Amino acid sequence: xxxxxxxxxxxxxxxxxxxxxxxxxxxxxxxxxxxxxxxxxxxxxxxxxxxxxxxxxxxxxxxxxxxxxxxxxxxxxxxxxxxxxxxxxxxxxxxxxxxx
Length: 100
What we know:
By secondary structure, this protein is mainly α.
């Protein structure tokens, strides 16, 4: 009996849901208070994943087999970094070297 190939969309959905749960659990264990916006973001993305299988509608905002858009990935990493206690990576404005 042959197995069917794994469903890429379902796999991406499970991975995204697990990442959301992991981030929320990490913040709870660390005792980090998420802002209202961050909590609402995690909840709404989770709800859209469960309902639609993806958390974004515009195909230009993410890959065809992805469950989260590029910016949703970035925000999720920022929230996870906040929960871990990492400092946000911000670079100061610098003057470009004009060569010479």
